[in-house]
Amino acid sequence: MKTHSLRGVAKCAALTSIFLMVWVQGISQSALEGHIGYIREQFQLINKRSANVDPLIFRSDTLHADGPMEIKSWRFEGKEIKMQATIRRASGKLVTDYYFGSQGFIFAFVQEYLKDEFNQPYVLENRYYFRDEETLVRWLDKDKKEVDPESERFRKRGNDILNDVHWLSEVFFMYGPKGPSSDADQLSIGDRYFYGITIGQKIEDVAGSLKKGWLKTGEGDFEVYYITDPQGSQLGHIPVEGDKVLTIVITTPKASTWDGLRVGSTFAELKEVLGEVEVHGSEIEGRTSVYKGYFQFLLDAYLYTFDVDETTIPPETKIKAIILRSPA
Question: Is the backbone of residue 92 left (phi > 0), alpha (psi -120 to 50) or beta?
């Protein structure tokens, strides 16, 4: 009886293990392997393209707490395909390559240069595979072994990598070449920032450059902070939602995403750039928006159902506003 019981426990444990192998971070094992294959193909393609492109470079001795920092950005056909951050720490330099495919941020390759007790150099390498720009689905550690995706260590490291890539993108946008000061009429929209304002930032840190007022709509009057340029032209607004910036609404056609989408772009142009997207309407107001990653594109269309068949939206329908939101 004891042998039978132990076999039952072992069988149950094996089934549990198989179940965990079949589903990882909300994606089936077969789909995950397909996605990893896609990332590896993109990795090769991006390295091939970046080898023939001179990177934009930004350096700072003060912005990073661990030491002098250098950021390189490679772009192909107007889109960022790779970014490299090198931090020169007292213990040795840290080099991280971030890769951006057609689906956005997909992969990070981290190399940590260290010295052992005999002062001999060695390198620790870690590889991080992402899905939907925000979910770590595989981590290969220094021994190229998979880290348990159910562990707290896995979840925390994924968040750290995402925070790093967003912070570095913001720094490069604000201070690096091709930043807003180099072309005042063409403003860049990042996935979490616009005009020096970042999602999650404290309102008190940016309120001095904003103008508080009321936005009148058919749904009522809403208190907002207006974003304006030095000439007083309105660029967008931030709804008052507590003590942090949770939403940025961009209404000026002067600003564009790195993919070239702006207020006034058509639904056909949006689909061509973004590919597969989510489209939802509103049962009460009829507000219809396209969702992709951190972006929400408000369309000049009114559909009064949540689930929208995108084929019912005319290709020439224009974007009315580009909205950045805090992730749920």
Answer: left
φ and ψ at residue 55, rounded to 5 degrees: -75, 155
Ranges in the chain, pLDDT < 50: 1-23, 178-186
* Domains of the chain: residue spans and CATH: 2-178 (no CATH), 182-325 (2.60.460.10)
Q: What is the number of alpha carbons within 13 Å of residue 273 lying toward its C-beta? A: 21
pTM attached to this predicted model: 0.52
Residue corresponding to tokens 């072994």:
145
Residues 6+ apart with CB under 8 A from 30: none
179 CB-contact burial (10 Å; exposed 0-12 / middle 13-18 / buried 19+): middle
Say if residues 24 and 32 touch (Cβ distance below 8 Å): yes
Of 137, 139, 109, 106, nearest to 123 by C-alpha is: 109
Nearest-angstrom CA–CA distance, 251 and 246: 17
Cα–Cα distance for residue pair 159/152, rounded to 1 Å:
11
**Cβ contacts of residue 98 below 8 Å, gap of 6+?**
82, 83, 84, 85, 105, 107, 108, 165, 168
- The pLDDT score that the predictor gives to residue 274 is 86
pLDDT digits (tens, 9 = 90+) for 28-56: 888 899 999 999 999 999 999 988 887 88
